[in-house]
Design brief:
This protein has 18 helices and 19 strands. With 486 residues, it is an alpha/beta fold. The protein folds into three domains: 188 residues, FAD/NAD(P)-binding domain, CATH 3.50.50; 114 residues, no CATH class; 125 residues, no CATH class.
Length: 486
């Protein structure tokens, strides 16, 4: 029985703790904050409840497998329900389209909204994405990856490598779509990894493919319930938790970790769910950490997010669980975020999550989570007087300009900025997705799950295979398999 310390109680850390405890390791999770879940946060106030992090679950089977393989039952713990439609999109010209939960119905919806040929073009693009998913879904995303050599060895043929075509961007792939609104819809999936579609590899068409092939899902009561269920499952497996425990150093192999104040927690194995930049840049002095430290210095953190949590009186005449309101000039948003002078986007894309769930708002009211992409703290000083509140007013104005004026319905609002994400999660500048996937190396070659320091492993959104609820759980399985049973 090995002594395992997991640094961080995000979803990747919880998933790793469950898997390791189920194989007879003695597991302690150290979390610097007062709660678990990482970015899967929640705010409750006056009968309203808001998920403050992810609001859509894709690939729920990853969590079903996690529970089943560690002696639990996800569906006995939470209610996972389909979101229908998966998302409602509105464009600057006033046109709209609903993407249905059923993947077979998506081409028809696009055909009806965008005109003849739009559905066929999208279906052809998704057919190619299905082939890419076959190439990367198991062999890359669900196994350890240690550099370009691994990627080349796992490609069965030159044809496979050609299909991956890392030199093509998502924007270049999108030129196959005749309607500019369809291209805009495709570009949006770059933001799922905090990236720029003009630099994101085209193989990331697997993101819309997965969402449409396997559907978008919601956990009744809010996605935070998924975190609650996994935390309770870990406790049932004997995992020990310490909150308010800030790790200041990860020691050499077998040395455990040092806490603020100087106490040492011994460990045979350390699993880090901390941001990889923080781990390699601040917690490790071992000389074997130099190579990943240099690689991370070259990587660009992902964009962040500016969030409004809106408690609204009354009900919307056309409620949607997810809606996206596009600007007229989408490229102007990416210029503002990824250009030489990052700044808050004057006319941003606005994402709204408003679950039709009686448990998240008082009867007859709505809880809206509103997100716009934003530069990281440091690129913009979100703590400067008036910056956050002024931009919050601007986002409400944009909502009104796009047909959703909720200002007269507003009971109260909470504002979350990149500075808040940095403080609460330890991510660099509040980067929501670890490193961006701008460029083939950034997209596929995140820090490895087995570090060059013996006994140290990485999980979570900043490590392979990347950010998002399904991927961080995959990272936990990879790390647990590398460590092996007790």
């Amino acid at each position: 029985m090995a002594r395992v310390v997991v640094v961080g109680a995000g979803m990747g850390g919880l998933a790793a703790a469950a898997r390791l405890a189920a194989t007879e390791h003695r597991v302690t999770v150290l979390e610097q904050s007062g709660t678990y879940g990482g970015k899967l946060g929640e705010l409750r106030r006056d009968g309203f409840a808001f998920d403050t992090g992810p609001s859509l679950l894709t690939l729920p089977r990853v969590y079903r497998d996690l529970f089943a393989e560690t002696g639990g039952d996800l569906d006995a713990a939470v209610e996972v329900v389909p979101v229908e439609p998966t998302c409602h999109y509105r464009f600057a010209d006033g046109s709209e389209v609903d993407l249905p939960h059923d993947p077979a119905a998506v081409p028809g919806a696009l055909e009806a909204a965008f005109g003849a040929g739009a559905g066929r073009e999208w279906a052809e693009l998704m057919a190619d994405a299905a082939r890419l998913w076959e190439l990367v879904g198991e062999s890359v995303l669900q196994r350890p990856l240690n550099g370009v050599g691994d990627l080349v060895r796992r490609s069965a043929s030159v044809r496979d490598l050609w299909a991956l075509a890392p030199w093509r961007t998502l924007r270049a792939v999108g030129r196959r779509l005749s309607d500019p609104r369809a291209r805009m819809l495709l570009d949006r999936y770059a933001t799922y990894s905090g990236s720029d579609p003009r630099r994101l590899p085209g193989l990331m068409t697997v993101v819309p493919y997965v969402e449409q092939r396997y559907g978008g899902w919601y956990v009744r009561g809010g996605l935070r319930r998924l975190g609650d269920a996994l935390f309770a499952h870990c406790r049932g497996l004997g995992v020990r938790f310490e909150f308010g425990a800030r790790v200041t150093a990860v020691r050499a192999a077998g040395g455990g970790v040092t806490l603020a104040g100087g106490a040492v927690v011994p460990a045979d194995v350390v699993v880090s769910d901390a941001d990889a930049r923080h781990l390699y840049g601040h917690l490790l002095t071992d000389r074997r950490a130099r190579a990943p430290r240099r690689a991370l210095a070259r990587a660009v953190p992902s964009l962040s997010g500016f969030v409004l949590l809106l408690a609204l009186r009354g009900r919307s005449p056309r409620p949607y669980h997810h809606r996206v309101l596009f600007p007229a000039d989408y490229d102007a948003e990416f210029d503002a975020l990824f250009g030489p002078d990052p700044r808050p986007v004057p006319d941003p894309t606005v994402y709204v999550c408003s679950p039709d769930d009686p448990t998240v708002a008082p009867e007859g009211h709505e809880a809206w989570f509103v997100l716009v992409n934003a530069p990281r703290q440091g690129q913009v000083d979100w703590t400067a007087p008036g910056v956050a509140e002024g931009y919050a007013d601007r986002v409400l104005d944009v909502l009104a300009e796009r047909g959703h004026d909720v200002r007269d319905r507003l009971l109260w609002r909470e504002v979350r900025t990149p500075a808040d994400w940095e403080r609460d999660t330890g991510s660099v500048g509040g980067a929501l997705y670890g490193s961006s996937s701008n460029g083939a190396r950034a997209a596929l070659l995140r820090p490895a799950n087995r570090s060059p320091v013996p006994g140290l492993y990485l999980v979570g959104g900043s490590a392979h295979p990347g950010g998002g609820l399904p991927l961080v759980a995959m990272s936990a399985k990879i790390a647990a398999d590398l460590i092996g049973p007790a």
